[in-house]
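Support request from a user on the community tier.

User writes: "When I paste my structure tokens into the form, the page sometimes reloads and wipes my input. The last time it worked, I copied everything first. Here is what I submitted, just in case something in the input itself triggers the reload:"
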């Protein structure tokens, strides 16, 4: 059984199940959901708790199986947590998890909680995950989309009795907040809590832009994959900020260039496949394009000309030399400046795909 995180409250009203599997790459959301399950379990008499963290290929799964089948003299019900940070239980773990899942049926004395990171499609098709899903409740935690982050921040502020001003000023405040915490939801949560301490709720609880600006630190975390989404989305300002952030965090120029150039090459491959008669969905699957990128490709590729893609490929090749210490005529000598320029070129084309051909002729 699959459950959306937002359905937790209604789910708990109907009573706890004996097996839950939480997976995703947002530690804050996973932690909050697990805390809510534990709190509900304590109210229902689950007074004992054991935690097993799977580390290494030689982890002893017999301890997990044993703890799930025994209770101490001082507890009628217990919580057994199995944490698998790698997301790979291994051969023995796969068998053990299937046994745990099957044993959970009809067992109201033990609540088993399995915590996993984000899982790829192949892993979720494995027998052990299938057993967890069949015999229990699975909850997937997707990252908060950047476009939804201001709304998420506003909701969290509202929960503690605070809000931003209405109209354009409030939107500017939320966008500023989102820019400072992008990619770091746990830090966003901490900054929101800090605002509650710095500005205790009085009156209508409205926070000004200056109050938020003075309180919120720049704790954003960027990665090359999020940069890719920003560039393909034509978000030039955000992409430039992310490149600066990656540089300040000590990221490799070569890795950033790889992310940008791989998207350019991927777009060229998909475009060629479409022109060869492949339907776009098939061309995207064959080139391993899915998720957020799939929607971005569907939007920008129809209006992007062969000349535009050829121009981007040529630019990517030049930047490849620059980040490796070579100089190119009419290009910045700095690798990071060259990456800014390359990202800007892609953003321009992706922001206005219908004008792709003229844009590709710009110097």
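"...and here is what came back when it finally went through:"
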């Amino acid at each position: 059984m699959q459950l959306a995180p937002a359905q937790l409250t209604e789910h708990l009203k109907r009573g706890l199940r004996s097996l839950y599997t939480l997976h995703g790459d947002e530690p804050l959301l996973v932690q909050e959901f697990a805390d809510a399950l534990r709190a509900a379990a304590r109210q229902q008499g689950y007074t004992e708790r054991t935690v097993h963290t799977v580390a290494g290929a030689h982890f002893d799964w017999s301890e997990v199986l044993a703890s799930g089948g025994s209770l101490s003299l001082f507890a009628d019900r217990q919580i057994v947590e199995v944490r698998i940070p790698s997301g790979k239980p291994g051969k023995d773990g796969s068998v053990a998890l299937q046994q745990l899942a099957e044993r959970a049926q009809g067992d109201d004395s033990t609540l088993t909680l399995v915590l996993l990171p984000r899982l790829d499609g192949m892993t979720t098709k494995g027998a052990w995950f299938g057993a967890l899903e069949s015999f229990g409740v699975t909850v997937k935690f997707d990252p908060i989309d950047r476009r939804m982050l201001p709304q998420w921040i506003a909701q969290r502020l509202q929960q503690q009795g605070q809000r931003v001003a209405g109209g354009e000023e409030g939107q500017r405040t939320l966008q500023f907040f989102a820019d400072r915490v992008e990619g770091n939801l746990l830090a966003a949560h901490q900054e929101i809590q800090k605002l509650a301490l710095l500005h205790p709720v009085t009156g209508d609880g409205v926070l000004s832009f200056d109050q938020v600006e003075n309180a919120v630190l720049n704790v954003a975390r960027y990665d090359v994959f999020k940069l890719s989404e920003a560039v393909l989305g034509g978000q030039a300002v955000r992409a430039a900020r992310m490149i600066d952030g990656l540089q300040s965090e000590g990221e490799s120029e070569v890795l950033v260039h790889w992310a940008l150039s791989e998207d350019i090459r991927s777009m060229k491959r998909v475009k060629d496949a479409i022109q060869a008669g492949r339907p776009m969905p098939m061309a995207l699957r064959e080139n391993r394009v899915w998720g957020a990128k799939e929607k971005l490709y569907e939007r920008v590729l129809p209006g992007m000309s062969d000349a535009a893609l050829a121009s981007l490929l040529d630019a990517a090749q030049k930047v490849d030399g620059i980040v490796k210490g070579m100089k190119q005529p009419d290009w910045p000598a700095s690798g990071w400046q060259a990456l800014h320029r390359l990202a800007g070129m892609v953003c321009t084309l992706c922001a206005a795909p219908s004008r792709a051909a003229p844009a590709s002729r710009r110097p």
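Agent notes: The reload is a front-end session timeout and is unrelated to the input. The chain has a mean pLDDT of 88. The longest strand covers residues 46-53. Escalated to web team.
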